[in-house]
Structure formats: structure tokens, C-alpha cells
Specification:
The structure is a single chain. The chain is of the alpha+beta class. Helix content is about 40%, strand content about 20%. Strands 1-5-6-11-10-9-7-8 form an eight-stranded mixed beta sheet, sandwiched between helices. Strands 13-12-14-15-16 form a five-stranded mixed beta sheet, with helices on both faces.
Length: about 425
């Protein structure tokens, strides 16, 4: 056994479970690909100031969880703890917003890193698929993204998730609410760190999960009572569009999410089968983030869905994904001449789009057939000297057990016809 193990709070994806993660990523990305979203990929690390300025220095992500380091050249970098700031930075750097086609619609998939206390559903290295629509303020865009996420989850067979929805107001109405909330919070019995948070970003106190804090928040002023007419109208249209699309949601007046850049629409996808780590994804509108990181005013909205937690949600519901076997045909040669001929046939089958594997290592028939069975292949091709002398190979159906001779030069055509029938 190796003396090295995966770092604490991380995990390896290995077959066959890794196929489930790939299927989840593809299912989440599929609705985006059909809705005008183009793929973007950013570095795994960025300037630490990008996240401090964009995500917020008062957030747990930046103040406690971010992996920050200084390079040999003196650059201060951080492993990316989330995707939005990186994607927006890349879009601005590439001037995608100047191409004349707004919103810029992007999707991404990758690994993210936060120094957290490891537990089920909470890792120091985790995987997300995200989507961002940059440069347009439109409630239909907010609704579109929520609908696409809902569509992705339902395509996987998930049914026991809920969508929580709230509005955080904008630069016009949120300052008034902020002052009222600060006045309320300053009278509570809170620790020093939480009191500092009251002065920096009091909305984050509402997101505090500690029971003793939540108990004291009873009677706290609600943002809904402070929304300006424009924000009320915007939020109502988002709600109406979701209802018209048949997407159920729950209004959650305390939903603020863990990032400072959110404005107006904010939402979260939760699954009650996951215990304390119930959020499987979320997002919202971030109209001021571009200006925070030095760009022009670009109202935007987006979300990120956790691949890890989506897999846990599937397992909690007992949903089995229909994942095709990685191998359709398995070739078993008996002798050197058969090895040469079958290896050539394997190459032809692969070129024809048939997932094919080969019995490497010169194993005997019994051991090779065990491997063929474990591979999940629908058909096994077996050939020995006598078969080849007659210009044939033996084709075995692994489901029925039936076996027949097939001419070598007809094998590819026969297999393709049967696999597509």
C-alpha cells in the first residue's frame, strides 16, 4: 500500500463511482449548452485581492477558508474558493462585454478550494458546475437561470429538492435596511467577531447558523419591508415567471447567501436528505461586482451547483443513473496470430465509434472471460488459430450466452448493427 493518502478533506474519484460524477456534470451543463451559454475555463488560482474585493473580506470564505499564499516571485495568490469572480475577471480581460451581444452567457466546471472542517457534503476540495449571464438587468434572465437549474436536477431524477428565493434589494434601498438591521443587532448578546461583522456586513449575521444567534434574531427587521418600488416590481416579475414556468419555490426572507456581492434576486437549492449541509447549489444577481473588481457597470446574475452534493442527493433519494457500460465489446485473443488480428479489429471498432477493450497481458481464456464479464461488455470477440484459419471469429452475446461464428471482414458491420438495433 502507498504511504501517501489524499489530503484531509479531499477525495479521489475512481471508477465506477467517477462515472456518476461525470454524468451529473453533463446533466447540469446540458440545459446551459442548449440555451446560449458558452464554455469558459479559468486558472485554479487568482490574485488574492480579486476574492477579497469581490467576495468580501468579511465573509468566512475570505477571512477563514481561503487558501492564500505568496509565490517565490512575491505574488499574493489564492486557490479559487468560488467561480463567479474568476469568470467575471476573465470575461472583462477578454473584453467579451464589448462584442456587442449582451448578456455574455458563460458556463464552467471545475474544482474549488476552501479550508473547512471536513464532514459529509463539506470538503476542502469540491467540484461545481456554474453559469453566469453578464451585462444585462432583466428578471427574465434571473428566472431563466433558476429554471435551467431546476431542469437539470429533474433530468437527473431528483424530486426532493426545494428552491428558496429572496430579494436583497439594491444600492437604493439596502442602505436604509442595513442601518435598521445594525441598530437591532447592536442590542443583542453576540461575540466580538459577530459584532465586527455587524459593522461590515450585517446581512451576514442573518446567515449565522448557530442556534443561540438565530434565537436572538426573532423580530429582526426584514428586508422585504424596506424594498424600494423598483426592487419589489423586479422581484415580483421573477416570481411570476417562475410560477408561469411551473417551477415551485419558497420565499425565504432570511436567505442572504455567504457572499457580499449579491443584489436583488438571491436563491438556493436545498435537499433535506443531506442533513446540515443541505444546500446543493445557489446563486443570485450581482449587479455591482464588475465595478468592485475594476470593470464597468455590468449587471449580472449566475449560480453554481455542487457536483459532490448533487451526487449525495441522488444517493439520498435512491436514484440510480442510467450510465452505459464503458465497454461495449471485449476482445479475447488465443495465441499470437489472434492477438495481432484482434488488436487490429479493436482499432477498427473504436474508429467506428464502438467502445472496445482488449485482453492485455496474454491471459488464458478463463481469466480473460472473467475480465470481459467484469467490463460490462455486451459482446465478447474470441479468436484462436482454428477460427482464423477459417476466416472467422467467435462473437458471444454476454446477456444471452449465445455464440456464433462471424467472418473477420464482417465483424465491425455486424457489431455496429447489433449495438444500434
Amino acid at each position: 500500500m502507498s504511504t501517501f493518502r489524499a489530503p484531509k478533506g479531499t477525495y479521489d474519484l475512481t471508477p465506477p463511482r467517477s462515472a456518476k460524477f461525470l454524468a451529473v456534470r453533463e446533466a447540469i451543463a446540458s440545459p446551459l449548452k442548449h440555451s446560449g451559454y458558452g464554455y469558459i475555463e479559468t486558472p485554479g488560482f487568482e490574485d488574492v485581492a480579486l476574492f477579497a474585493r469581490g467576495v468580501g473580506e468579511s465573509t468566512d470564505i475570505v477571512s477563514k477558508e481561503m487558501y492564500a499564499f505568496e509565490t517565490k516571485g512575491g505574488d499574493k495568490l489564492a486557490l479559487r474558493p468560488e467561480g463567479t469572480a474568476s469568470v467575471l475577471r476573465a470575461a472583462l480581460e477578454a473584453n467579451l462585454h464589448k462584442a456587442g451581444n449582451l448578456p455574455v452567457k458563460l458556463w464552467y466546471s471545475g474544482s474549488y478550494y476552501r479550508y473547512e472542517r471536513p464532514q459529509a457534503g463539506r470538503y476542502r476540495h469540491f467540484s461545481q458546475v456554474g453559469a453566469e449571464a453578464i451585462g444585462t438587468e432583466d428578471p427574465a434572465l434571473d428566472a431563466e437561470l433558476i429554471i435551467l437549474a431546476d431542469q437539470a436536477y429533474r433530468s437527473l431524477g431528483l424530486t426532493e429538492f426545494r428552491i428558496l428565493l429572496n430579494s436583497l434589494g439594491d444600492k437604493e434601498c439596502r442602505p436604509v435596511y442595513r442601518e435598521a438591521l445594525q441598530t437591532f443587532l447592536r442590542d443583542l448578546d453576540l461575540d466580538e467577531e459577530t459584532r465586527r461583522r455587524i459593522e461590515i456586513n450585517p446581512l451576514r449575521v442573518l446567515d449565522d447558523k448557530r442556534p443561540d444567534v438565530q434565537k436572538q434574531l426573532t423580530g429582526a427587521p426584514m428586508l422585504r419591508d424596506f424594498l424600494c418600488d423598483a426592487c419589489k416590481a423586479y422581484h415580483e416579475e421573477v416570481r411570476d415567471l417562475l410560477t408561469a414556468a411551473g417551477v415551485a419555490y419558497e420565499d425565504d426572507e432570511k436567505l442572504v447567501r455567504g457572499l457580499d456581492y449579491y443584489t436583488r434576486t438571491t436563491f438556493e437549492f436545498v435537499h433535506d436528505g443531506l442533513g446540515s449541509q443541505s444546500a446543493v447549489g445557489g446563486g443570485g444577481r450581482y449587479d455591482g461586482l464588475s465595478e468592485m473588481i475594476g470593470g464597468p457597470a455590468l449587471p449580472s446574475v449566475g449560480w453554481a451547483l455542487g457536483v459532490d452534493r448533487t451526487v449525495l442527493a441522488l444517493e439520498a433519494e435512491g436514484v440510480e443513473l442510467d450510465i452505459p457500460a464503458p465497454t461495449g465489446v471485449y476482445a479475447v485473443p488465443l495465441g499470437e496470430e489472434a492477438r495481432r488480428v484482434l488488436f487490429g479489429l479493436v482499432t477498427e471498432l473504436r474508429k467506428a465509434g464502438v467502445a472496445t477493450d482488449f485482453a492485455f497481458g496474454g491471459r488464458g481464456l478463463k481469466g480473460a472471460m472473467k475480465s470481459a464479464n467484469r467490463s460490462g461488455a455486451r459482446y465478447t470477440v474470441v479468436a484462436g488459430e482454428r477460427d482464423l484459419a477459417e476466416g472467422n471469429v467467435q462473437l458471444k452475446d454476454m446477456e444471452s450466452g449465445e455464440q456464433e461464428a462471424v467472418a473477420v471482414d464482417e465483424l465491425v458491420t455486424v457489431i455496429r448493427a447489433r449495438l444500434t438495433a
